[in-house]
Automatic annotation (TrEMBL), chain A:
Entry keyword set: Cell inner membrane, Cell membrane, Cytochrome c-type biogenesis, Membrane, Transmembrane, Transmembrane helix, Transport
Protein name: Heme exporter protein C
Gene Ontology MF terms: heme binding; heme transmembrane transporter activity
Location relative to the cell: Cell inner membrane; Membrane
Bilayer-crossing regions: 21-44, 56-84, 91-115, 127-147, 154-173, 202-224
Family annotation (Pfam families): Cytochrom_C_asm
One GO CC term on file: plasma membrane
Function: Required for the export of heme to the periplasm for the biogenesis of c-type cytochromes.
Amino acid sequence: MWKWLHPYADPERAYKLSGTLFPWFAILAGLLIAVGTTWGLVFAPTDYQQGDSYRIIFIHVPAASMSMAAYMGMATAAFIGLVWQIKLADWAAASIAPIGAVITFIALFTGAAWGKPMWGAWWVWDARLTSELVLLFLYLGVISLYASFEDKVLAARAAGILAIVGVINIPIIKYSVEWWSSLHQPSTIRITEKSTMSTEMLYPLLINILGFGLMIGAITIVRFRAEILARNGMRPWVRELAKAEEVK
Amino acid sequence: MMQFDSISDFFNMGGYAFYVWLSYGVTFFCLATLIITSARQKRKVLIDIAKKMDREERLKETRSTKS
């Protein structure tokens, strides 16, 4: 497997390969989010308890679940970069961090805007909310550590260690609603048993979750490619691209 | 099946208009900003590299004229 993977660890090939993958991610993400959001806002039935306020779920849950998935992706990349010293993995981790931070902020914000009409408060210091806030700070910590060092090999190591240690927060977020009594409702999507939500609400939600995942993938590719160029400014192939861009 | 009888009914969101549209609006704004800044990164990086190359070129020229 390593023999097969190795050529893709070449920055130029990774740059080109990610460029070919990008339109698939972008187009699929756009389509899925358009369908999921329209379905959720217009066609999904009104909730008998929460009325139309529950329609926030179609962005809140995708953002929240993908904020954790993106963190796992970032930590995995950081781990590969740290253990096998593959710089491309470090650059991938650095590209995910700002996206994860924005997605986490969206999860927190939409949660607050849903909490106000349902619980009567924008914010409570509850286990689920607090651990998700810690996730935002972890992302911000990784971003600032990576930005703080001129030497990007050192920067990636420092940021990578924080990213890996921060993984401990992920199961805490996931199980917070079971471990502690919480104002936050437990998950409505069940993998092993029947979900507690009607399929007319569940389908648009699943579509948007997938759409958010692909969108994060697409933006990661865009940032990853810019990061490859920034870290390889001395290479002839990058210099040729730079010359071409200057003429434009 | 459509859940709202009219456009104004849709915008009203069963009385939760403020919270629903605030959520969707802020989400849209954040994602749009993220996508635009990410898309502009590549050009900025390449222009910076090109500038650096020009500087190196000038340095080389002054050195060769002095000697």
